Write a sequence for this structure.
């Protein structure tokens, strides 16, 4: 044929139009990500319907688990685009309705059904279903991903019969390849979303269990503090008096009194009894004073001068702040090699701010050996809805930064802290 032959020109125009369709489909399906994939697939099916002048285009996936697995997996219609007044195909397509067609799709072969002419002759049940469903012609191509059939895409005519040429069936195979990639990506996205949901639920269960464990631990601390103060300390004091009355050497009685004072001091330092007794700022002063007695360097405490301001902080929040302070100072003492420590406390209407930093060796690339202490701090802070960060401070050493809410988190799962919190390192 000559270059100007109408058939040649028409053929070239059809090829060019199909290339433009493929480019458009590929662009829409590749750009779509995650939850947008559903919209991208539906838009692509609409383009296919318009391009071929069809009435309906449907995407199926093959279920790889469930009741249909023994027969190769059920075909489930997941996406469908129709012209106005044309019914959608939804749900599972039964093998009894399309036994030959579905078997061929599973084998990786394309299918063309022409009920008016009774073709193919060996698909009587499939053709009967088409007639009962009002389908005049139907073509379908398998979706193949990673070497296996994962579904199918079909194009149906209900208003009139349409003959599908061999060239058009090849075109549909190309289109099916694009949909196969999208279906595989959607399956991966759903698997990731399911895994993420399970992980989040496991984290919520873990945090609820942690909250219960921490609550039990706090109650145990209270009990031990009461026992030390009300029982052990009192017995030691009584014993020292009895030793004096019995004429035992003064040094022995004095040692018992010293032991009683030591036990009494431990009972006061047990959280949260110290907070309950002295309030937030009083407990902080006591903790810092105890640290100063052991630390050879310089300690600077910057806190509100009005002790009453600490009374506004709920005991549970103040207790968490004291725990963070105690653990941070313990890390300084054990690991930092610091000469200066700065502690800053701010109390505002929206919460309690706490910073502990030193001029020591810092956290470095890895968390310090007391990693369990960092985990404990983080868990306590997040369980009340706070935020925490372990970083390098302006003194060029370690910085522990925490922001605690003005009231405890009513849902102790840490979700609020993870959504809006600072990055937690270590």
């Amino acid at each position: 044929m000559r270059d100007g032959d109408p058939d040649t020109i028409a053929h070239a125009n059809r090829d060019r139009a199909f290339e433009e369709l493929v480019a458009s489909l590929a662009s829409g399906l590749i750009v779509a990500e995650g939850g947008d994939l559903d919209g991208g697939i539906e838009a692509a099916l609409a383009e296919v319907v318009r391009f071929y002048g069809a009435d309906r285009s449907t995407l199926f996936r093959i279920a790889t688990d469930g009741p249909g697995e023994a027969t190769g997996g059920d075909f489930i219609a997941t996406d469908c685009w129709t012209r106005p007044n044309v019914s959608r195909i939804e749900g599972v397509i039964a093998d009894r309705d399309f036994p030959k067609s579905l078997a061929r799709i599973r084998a990786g072969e394309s299918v063309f059904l022409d009920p008016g002419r009774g073709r193919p002759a060996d698909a009587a049940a499939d053709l009967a279903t088409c007639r009962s469903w009002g389908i005049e012609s139907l073509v379908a191509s398998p979706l193949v991903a990673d070497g296996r059939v994962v579904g199918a895409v079909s194009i149906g005519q209900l208003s009139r019969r349409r003959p599908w040429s061999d060239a058009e069936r090849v075109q549909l195979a190309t289109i099916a390849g694009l949909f196969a990639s999208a279906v595989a990506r959607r399956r991966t996205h759903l698997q990731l979303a399911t895994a993420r949901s399970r992980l989040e639920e496991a984290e919520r269960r873990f945090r609820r269990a942690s909250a219960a464990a921490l609550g039990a631990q706090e109650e145990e601390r209270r009990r031990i503090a009461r026992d030390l103060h009300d029982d052990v300390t009192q017995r030691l004091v009584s014993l020292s008096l009895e030793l004096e009355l019995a004429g035992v050497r003064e040094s022995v009685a004095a040692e018992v009194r010293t032991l009683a004072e030591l036990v009494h001091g431990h009972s006061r330092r047990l959280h949260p009894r110290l907070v309950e007794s002295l309030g937030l700022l009083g407990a902080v002063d006591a903790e810092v004073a105890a640290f100063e007695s052991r630390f050879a360097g310089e300690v600077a405490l910057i806190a509100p001068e009005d002790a009453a301001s600490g009374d506004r902080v709920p005991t549970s929040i103040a207790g968490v702040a004291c725990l963070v302070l105690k653990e941070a100072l313990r890390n300084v003492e054990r690991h930092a090699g610091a000469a200066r420590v700065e502690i800053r406390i701010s109390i505002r209407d929206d919460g309690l701010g706490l910073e502990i930093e030193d001029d020591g060796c810092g956290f470095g690339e890895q968390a310090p050996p007391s990693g369990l202490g960092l985990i404990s701090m983080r868990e306590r802070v997040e369980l009340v809805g706070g935020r925490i960060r372990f970083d390098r401070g302006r003194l060029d050493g370690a910085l522990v930064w925490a922001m605690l809410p003005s009231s405890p988190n009513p849902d102790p799962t840490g979700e609020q802290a993870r959504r809006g919190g600072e990055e937690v390192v270590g």
Remarks:
- The two ends are 75 Å apart (CA to CA).
- The first helix runs from residue 6 to 31.
- The chain has two domains: 6-196, 277-426.
- The first strand starts at residue 56 and ends at 62.
